[in-house]
Amino acid sequence: MNHRPFEDWLLEDQQLTPQQERDLQAHVRTCTSCTAVAETNLALHAARLARPAAGFTDRFRVRLEQRRREQRWRQVIGTLLLVLGGLGLVYWLASPILIEVFRSPASWLTAGVGYFLFILTSLQVLGEVTSILLRVVPGFIPPAGWFVLTMITAGLGFLWTITIKRAARAPQGV
Question: Which of 7, 32, 44, 100 has the CB geometry, 3.0–4.6 Å to 111, for a possible disulfide?
Fold first, then answer.
């Protein structure tokens, strides 16, 4: 049975035509689900609205301002931690060069070239290791294993996305 127009008529407070009213009454007499909706709707309309306690708006404003201050404070702390972490990372990466800055110009040049060669050879080794692993590992893992590995990775990515969404959402209650 199609309940859609009857539920809409019951839940929306709109004026019905006499024909719609007759159809609705006939349907409500035969349908227990729509009868329950009609009774619930009548009970909701008959209920008295409660007034907030005295001083509610003042308490709400004070609590809202307190939460805003806490939010700003968390943002300041988060930004400070991010900046300090970034500066620490830059210092850690640049420390070999910074140490050499305070030495003679010849030391600067040799340190810079050494650092450049270190990075270059590290990238080459990393590329070779990756190439070897990409040739060897697929032979050890059967297709079903790749499927399971892909599903696990997708599931972890999905969980990570949900976690980020929940963490980024502002608290709703007051």
Answer: 100
The tens digit of pLDDT for each residue in 72-85 reads 999 999 999 999 99
Neighbours of 11 (CB within 10 A): 13
Contact (CB, 8 A) for 35 and 13: no
pLDDT at 170 (0 to 100): 63
The candidate with the shortest Cα–Cα distance to 94, out of 124, 118, 115, is 115
Q: Which two tokens stand for residue 124?
A: 């080459």
Instruction: Answer for the pair 174, 66: CB distance below 8 angstroms, yes or no.
Output: no
The answer to whether the CB of 30 falls within 8 A of the CB of 3 is: no
Q: By C-alpha distance, which of 60, 62, 4 is closest to 34?
A: 4
Residue 120 has pLDDT above 60, yes or no: yes
Q: 169 falls in which pLDDT band (50, 70, 90)?
A: confident
Q: Kindly give, in sequence order, each residue whose CB lies less than 8 Å from that of residue 38, ignoring residues fewer than 6 positions away.
A: 10, 28
d(CA 37, CA 67): 39
